[in-house]
Design brief:
The complex is a heterotetramer of chains A (about 260), B (about 230), C (about 180) and D (about 200). Chain C has 7 helices and 5 strands; from the N terminus they run H-H-H-E-E-E-E-E-H-H-H-H. With about 180 residues, chain C is an alpha+beta fold. Chain D has one domain. Helix content of chain D is about 75%, strand content about 0%. In chain D, helix 3 packs parallel to helix 7 and helix 7 packs antiparallel against helix 8. The chains are: A alpha+beta (about 260), B mainly alpha (about 230), C alpha+beta (about 180), D mainly alpha (about 200). Chains in contact: A-B, A-C, A-D, B-C, B-D, C-D.
């Protein structure tokens, strides 16, 4: 008697569990497009939205439905090749992108206007008189971009955020996180970039930062393909025209145009 | 990997409690005294060893649809076995462990090792791994338990160390002290292992100890989960 | 046939595992007689040690088979020289695991003392009350009437001290209930 | 009625399952990084706690340890309860995935974690140890779930603050969270005398 009840109880529970699990997993199976699941496994999972959809799950379903297979920029050619293999369509090249921080105000070249000891986030600090940096449009260096980067491709070095363009996949999460809007995502093959976004006139920029763009237009005159223009007191490169020759970088008096 | 490597990895490199932050419930609850901590560690090691061996023996027999219930029944069976042994031979430990003895069944370490390791490796390796994890867990528990007992009650394994002069600090014996001592321990281990814990996104705890649910072991799950966390 | 076997195989394996595990457990539980061994009564030396503070006048305690509505009652002992009765109770304190306390009462129901056999109270708080011999000695010489007035709760460890008093209250009630059967009064 | 309230309050504040009974610490550390995920986890845990109490209490009262005392299979309690909880959680997961996909997207990932949550099995066993009847057990389970929610929400607020605090490098991440949990637990110890005085 002392053996019968326990064993019967457990055989009953086991039977109930087995039957219910089998029945439930058969009857209530959710028809999932097999390919959507495979595609989701292949996608990097950064949920960055660079493909224009609300995240990897959403993009996986849409691709299974027939959307273009090379929209995942962080995944690059590798993911695009795998996705098109799953879908059985031809491989389409992905224009790889990479980010760059348009500021090189490290501790050596610029200072701070006050000592900030509040919440260690750029968003919080930038609300206090535009941030602690001497240059109001410069990088605050508290690493909001570092916190959101799923690929560890950006780090704050010597007070300014620097992108490791070899690891950067161009997902754009850091650009969204930067309260100063300093980070721009453009074609990964581009080599030249203006590392300054100062809107102050020349004299004020020079006072704030030794490596700031003073809007002298030397680069504009020297550029053979007319790819660089000074707007809003600082130079900016049009990456569709830039050939990467680097002449502007050599001529720049404050060396704020650099070869990445 | 050879057996000895499996064994030693559980003690330092992948210590389940201080590095992978698993099984935190007993670590905080049972470490008010070093003797309790030792008792809990040994009981958990026995269950871990037994269930990992049996699960790796049955790994090809158990179909995947009922994988979780089968593992849990085997583990709970071993826990009940341990509670028999303790009830008869070490009654004081049985009464001290109380409800936490049956909570060993849901200890994340056991289900984690069963899922991630025992169900994929040979019996020998699983046994070595289980033993390593068990010893690692017991040492970590002993460490936390000793610190809490010495500071909180001024004694170690019952030996009075206060010589009538020092006044013990009761907060270390209380739950609040448990959290703090464990936090400090993890910080020290974090420093010694060159910030591995802060960088590694908290290992399994990242997927909240739900190792039983991880399809491909902890890393795959926490990567995927980390993406959309 | 192959298809249906695949369908019922998981259930079959699960049932098999459950049956084997529960069978083995039932086997060990009954063969080893865990039930009897677990709540085996205390050994002679343990009894002598507990009786020293609970019922000092008793020379030796003998186990008495007696039932009481109060399920917290674990054992009832009679003093060999008729000096009184000792009851061991499960007493609810702060921790979820109850304390085991032996209360000693002499022939006419006056409490002689108590011994806390095992407890899992919080160190430094509950345990401080239990280790405070002077406080526990306060229970000696009490009758049921002056239980509430003579003994006050220890601030900060109310659950433990109130638990001990509630246990003493239960001990008096059990004494009234069983004194006929145990002491033949 | 006041007795039910006493059980509810003591389960939420005084003997909080996470902060003083130390159950459910794994999700307490793992899931409390964001308040939204903490809330989702707490709702799922509370639901499973109440439902598994509803399932396990009768099994214990009528099969394992019947009142007429014909037999006592208390030793099988752990085995039965954990099997019932694991089965219940898996079935609920399948049902939610089928009928409430948006809910599954928000809460689904937490359901399998609950099977290995010490608090859920702990509540079912403590209901039996403290000798509660079915009504009291359900109230205790609800209190435990709400206590888990209170602790988790409060702690996730603290955690989000710590993420941005200037914490020494070795304390970054979990160590700082644990020390903060110690302070939160100390504040909870303040509720000690609440139930006795409030409900007499």
């Amino acid at each position: 008697m002392d053996y019968l009840i326990p064993i019967l109880l457990f055989v009953g529970l086991g039977l109930l569990a087995g039957v219910l699990l089998t029945v439930f997993s058969r009857v209530f199976a959710v028809e999932q497009d097999e390919r959507a699941v495979q595609i989701r496994e292949v996608l990097p999972g950064a949920n960055c939205g660079a493909c224009g959809y609300a995240g990897c799950d959403a993009y996986a379903e849409v691709v299974a439905g027939g959307a273009r297979t090379n929209a995942c920029i962080p995944g690059g050619d590798a993911v695009s090749r795998k996705v098109s293999a799953i879908m059985g369509t031809a491989f389409e090249d992905v224009v790889e992108q990479a980010a760059a921080v348009r500021c090189n105000g490290s501790c050596g070249v610029t200072g701070t206007r006050f000592a900030y000891a509040g919440e260690m986030s750029c968003a919080a600090c930038s609300r206090l008189y535009g941030g602690q940096g001497s240059c109001p449009s410069g990088c605050i260096g508290l690493g909001d971009c570092v916190k959101v980067c799923p690929f560890g491709a950006i780090a704050v070095k010597d007070g300014v955020a620097v992108v490791d363009r070899s690891r950067c996949t161009g997902c754009g999460l850091c650009a969204a996180a930067c309260p100063k809007g300093l980070i721009e995502v453009f074609d990964a093959t581009q080599k030249v970039e203006v590392l300054c976004s100062s809107v102050l006139p020349a004299r004020a920029t020079m006072a704030a930062c030794k490596a700031g763009c003073i809007g002298c237009k030397k680069c504009e005159r020297a550029c053979p393909s007319g790819a660089i223009h000074v707007q809003n007191n600082h130079a900016a490169i049009d990456h569709s025209k830039c050939t990467g020759c680097g002449i502007c970088a050599e001529g720049c008096p404050t060396h704020c145009i650099q070869i990445l | 990997m050879s057996w000895s490597k499996e064994f030693f990895k559980g003690i330092i490199k992948e210590n389940p409690t201080l590095v992978m932050l698993l099984g935190t419930c007993p670590t905080l609850a049972m470490t008010t005294q070093a003797s309790n901590a030792l008792g809990m560690g040994i009981a958990t090691t026995f269950v871990l060893l037994g269930s990992c061996v049996v699960i790796s023996l049955l790994k090809n027999v158990i179909p995947s649809q009922v994988r979780l219930p089968c593992y849990i029944v085997i583990i709970a069976g071993f826990v009940t076995l341990v509670s028999f042994l303790l009830q008869v031979y070490v009654p004081e430990l049985y009464s001290v462990l109380g409800v936490f003895l049956s909570l060993i069944t849901v200890n994340c370490i056991i289900l984690g090792r069963a899922e991630a390791f025992a169900s994929k490796n040979s019996v020998g390796h699983s046994a070595a791994d289980a033993l390593g994890m068990g010893v690692g867990f017991t040492l970590a528990l002993l460490l936390v338990g000793s610190v809490r007992e010495i500071l909180g009650m001024g004694s170690w394994f019952g030996i009075d160390l206060t010589f009538g002069v020092l006044e013990p600090i009761p907060i270390f014996a209380m739950p609040a002290g448990g959290f703090m001592v464990f936090g400090l321990m993890v910080a020290v281990v974090n420093r010694l292992s060159h910030y591995q814990i802060s960088r590694k996104k908290m290992g399994c705890a990242g997927c909240a100890g739900g190792c039983a649910a991880c399809a491909g072991g902890c890393d795959a799950q926490s990567e995927k989960k980390e993406g959309n966390d | 046939m192959r298809k249906t076997w695949e369908l019922i195989r998981p259930t079959f394996v699960l049932v098999l595992v459950c049956a084997v595990v529960s069978g083995l457990l039932a086997l060990t539980y009954n063969l080893a007689g865990v039930a009897e061994l677990a709540n085996a009564a205390y050994t002679e030396e343990q009894l002598a040690e507990y009786a020293a503070t609970a019922l000092p006048q008793a020379d030796r305690l003998e186990l008495v088979e007696a039932e009481s509505e109060n399920e917290d009652l674990k054992f009832v002992y009679k003093a060999a020289n008729g000096a009184g009765m000792a009851v061991v109770l499960d007493v609810k304190g702060y921790d979820s695991t109850p304390m085991a306390i032996m209360y000693g009462l002499d022939a006419d129901g006056v409490m002689q003392g108590l011994t806390v056999i095992s407890n899992n109270e919080t160190p430094g708080i509950g345990k401080k009350v239990i280790e405070d011999a002077a406080y526990l000695a306060g229970y000696a010489g009490l009758t049921e009437a002056d239980l509430n007035t003579a003994v006050d709760a220890v601030s900060g460890a109310t659950k433990t001290s109130n638990g001990i008093r509630a246990g003493a209250q239960a001990a008096f009630e059990i004494f009234e209930e069983l004194k006929g059967e145990v002491l033949g009064q | 009625m006041t007795e039910m309230l006493a059980i509810l309050f003591s389960a939420i504040l005084v003997d909080n399952f996470v902060l003083s009974k130390f159950m459910g610490i794994c999700p307490f550390i793992g899931v409390s990084k964001k308040t939204s995920s903490a809330f989702g986890m707490s709702v799922a845990v509370t639901f499973v706690m109440v439902m598994s109490t509803l399932l396990t209490w009768p099994i214990n009262a009528y099969i394992l340890v019947p009142a007429d005392g014909s037999h006592d299979y208390g030793y099988l309690r752990t085995l039965t309860f954990i099997l019932v909880i694991a089965l219940f959680v898996q079935l609920v997961e399948i049902l939610i995935k089928k009928f409430l996909p948006p809910l599954y997207k928000a809460l689904g990932i937490y359901l399998p974690l609950i099977t290995t949550n010490c608090a859920v099995l702990g509540v079912t066993i403590l209901n039996i140890d403290s000798g509660y009847d079915l009504g009291q057990s359900l109230v205790n389970a609800l209190g435990a779930g709400l206590g888990f929610m209170v602790a988790l929400l409060m702690f996730s607020g603290v955690r989000e603050r710590i993420e941005r605090a200037d914490v020494p490098k070795m304390f970054k991440g979990v160590p700082a969270a644990l020390v903060a949990a110690g302070i939160v637990a100390a504040s909870f110890a303040g509720f000690g005398g609440l139930v006795e005085n409030l409900f007499g």
